[in-house]
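A reminder from the course coordinator: this example appears on the midterm review sheet, so study it carefully.

Given structure:
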């Protein structure tokens, strides 16, 4: 069993948000963004793009969220860049939420967990996204290892993509929607945690106001959809209500399109970060 070597993820996240605000910025090296930065689709350009973002942003926000798929497409060279992104972001003080959306059963889920949450893993992040499609309890290896190592998991509940609504709003055997069941399951895991638990949920900033009850969650809410997907800072209060203090608004393209200069990236980040922080006052 891996020993706890740091404070709980809930404590670390709370401290980071108090110091830098709740904004989470995605590092998504999409081909269209590489082109906009006058870069080609090569491992060298991937590294230049990603490390420019790290240099500009890792000292400015609480969380950076690299999207693993955009690195994996370059094979082993891309994975090497991803490892560097994680390492140097953490060294600059940002928490790294690795967006991998893993979900499986038994020994396979254990292996995924060790790849991203074990203390000595080359890609060890501060938290990862996970998929509960095989059942919330199938995530136990990740939830358990994250707790042991002071890391976190964010479980997909009600995502910002329109295609997710049909499944996520359908009725679970508990009588609630599937999305509400996921939120309630995370709440049970987080019960009695202080200042908050290590299991967060993913709930898009584009969902209907009041669609989910977060009152018992006692954990963070990753809220993608800010900017390019249509959500605004002003709609966050409508969607999340009293849960707003636990919300981590997430954006990527609305910041990365202001590259390739670090100054441009920082200016865009400061503008959105300040808007989000003011909303919570």
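Designed residues:
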């Amino acid at each position: 069993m891996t020993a706890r070597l740091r404070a709980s993820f809930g404590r670390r996240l709370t401290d980071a948000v108090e110091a830098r605000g709740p904004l989470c910025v995605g590092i998504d090296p999409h081909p269209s963004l590489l082109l906009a930065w006058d870069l080609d689709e090569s491992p060298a350009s991937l590294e230049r793009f990603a490390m420019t973002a790290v240099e500009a942003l890792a000292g400015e926000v609480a969380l950076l969220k690299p999207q693993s798929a955009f690195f994996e497409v370059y094979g082993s060279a891309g994975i090497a860049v991803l490892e560097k992104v994680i390492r140097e972001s953490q060294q600059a003080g940002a928490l790294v939420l690795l967006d991998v959306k893993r979900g499986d059963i038994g020994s396979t889920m254990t292996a995924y967990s060790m790849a991203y949450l074990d203390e000595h893993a080359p890609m060890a992040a501060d938290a990862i996204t996970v998929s509960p499609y095989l059942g919330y309890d199938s995530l136990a290896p990740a939830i358990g290892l994250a707790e042991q190592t002071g890391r976190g998991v964010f479980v997909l509940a009600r995502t910002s993509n329109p295609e997710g609504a049909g499944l996520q709003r359908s009725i679970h055997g508990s009588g609630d929607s599937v999305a509400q069941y996921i939120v309630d399951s995370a709440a049970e895991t987080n019960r009695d945690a202080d200042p908050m638990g290590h299991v967060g949920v993913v709930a898009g900033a584009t969902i209907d106001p009041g669609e989910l009850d977060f009152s018992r969650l006692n954990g963070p809410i990753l809220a993608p959809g800010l900017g390019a997907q249509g959500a605004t800072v002003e709609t966050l209060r409508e969607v999340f209500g009293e849960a707003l203090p636990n919300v981590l608004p997430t954006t990527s393209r609305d910041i990365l399109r202001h590259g390739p200069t670090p100054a441009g990236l920082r200016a865009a980040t400061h503008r959105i970060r300040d808007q989000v922080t003011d909303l919570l006052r």
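Residues 9-279 form a domain with the TIM Barrel fold (CATH 3.20.20.70). The radius of gyration is 18 Å.
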